[in-house]
Write a structure and sequence with these properties.
The chain contains eight helices and twelve strands. With 297 residues, it is an alpha+beta fold. It has one domain: LCP protein (Aminopeptidase), CATH 3.40.630.190. Strand 2 and strand 3 form a beta hairpin. Helix 3 packs across helix 4 and helix 4 runs antiparallel to helix 5. The protein is globular and about 45 Å long. It starts with a helix and ends in a 5-residue tail after the last helix.
Length: 297
């Protein structure tokens, strides 16, 4: 009996030690990525939300970083999460969408907002476009995506419409490495759906990363994953809240994650390509997201 108690005690100590170590790794990376918010809440909120208990929205933004400037927003996704419904929605805004950018005289592409004023201006632009609050952001350098996927051991993707890009043929069920994943989300010109097809592929990758990153079998790779994520991640969500969100949503079933896309049409203005979204379509998506956030319109 005493021997059994000793064995159980040692096992408990080891388990606690491993748990503390993993939490330390998570906290270290989250703390490195953390940039405190300039304002306690969105101007479109009557009160500050508690993202650990309330429905909330996050701006997920992938940056195409460049040496000469701070780059442009290559991927813009609004994530809404509702803990009461145990559900997550991902809504992609095409990067060429024609919008009003605050303090700019003319309409412009939504992804240019990042070049003009960084994450803060992109956040304000998305809030004005949707007329909904954005409660936080997570920014990832797209060049870091390759390393993140490789550190996870690849991600599983189903390709609906086969295509070949950068020497890789994408078809059916595939396990993509980092380089292939980057090519998968970047291809646009050869997609018959254009930006919409690219948006759908980006959403597939987000879902695949979410699944792989929350699997129990990913734990042995956690240290390497976090080391790869760290230099490429920025967020205004505090470390403890990020850890809490990871624990809260890590077991969510894939069927509880739904995706939405804006319908629109291409247009040319002064020789420049834009994606035009009508106000009725904006209202349709706004209604879906407001209901998920439990907001009254």
């Amino acid at each position: 009996m005493k021997k059994l108690i000793r064995i159980m005690t040692v096992a408990l100590i080891i388990t606690l030690g491993v748990a503390i170590y993993f939490f330390y790794l998570l906290y270290s990376v989250a703390n490195e990525a953390y940039s405190p918010p300039k304002e306690p809440k969105s101007d479109k909120r009557a009160r500050q939300v508690n993202i650990e208990e309330d429905p909330f929205s996050l701006l997920l933004i992938g940056i195409d970083a460049r040496e000469a400037d701070q780059g442009r927003a290559d991927t813009i996704i609004v994530l809404t999460a509702n803990p009461h419904k145990n559900s997550v929605k991902l809504t992609n805004i095409p990067r060429d969408t024609l919008v009003k950018i605050p303090d700019r005289d003319q309409l412009d592409k939504i992804n240019h907002s990042y070049a003009y004023g960084g994450i803060q201006l992109t956040r304000e632009t998305v809030e004005e476009f949707l007329d909904l609050p954005i409660d936080g952001y997570v920014q990832v350098n797209m060049q870091g995506l390759e390393k993140i996927v490789d550190s996870l051991g690849g991600i599983d993707i189903h390709v609906d419409s086969p295509f070949t890009y950068q020497g890789v043929t994408f078809r059916g069920d595939m396990t993509l490495n980092g380089k292939q994943t980057l090519a998968f989300v970047q291809m646009r010109k050869h997609d018959p759906e254009g930006d919409l097809g690219r948006n759908k592929r980006q959403q597939k990758v987000i879902r695949a990363l979410f699944r792989k990153g929350t699997e129990f079998r990913t734990l042995p790779r956690l240290k390497r994953v976090l080391e790869q994520i760290g230099p490429h991640l920025k967020t205004d969500i505090s470390p403890w809240k990020l850890i809490s969100l990871h624990q809260r949503y890590r077991g969510i079933d894939d069927s509880r994650i739904t995706t939405h896309s804006f319908q629109g049409q291409p247009t040319m203005r002064n020789g420049t390509y834009y994606w035009l979204i009508k106000e009725d379509e904006v209202r349709r998506i706004r209604s879906i997201l407001a209901e998920h956030l439990e907001l009254d319109l």
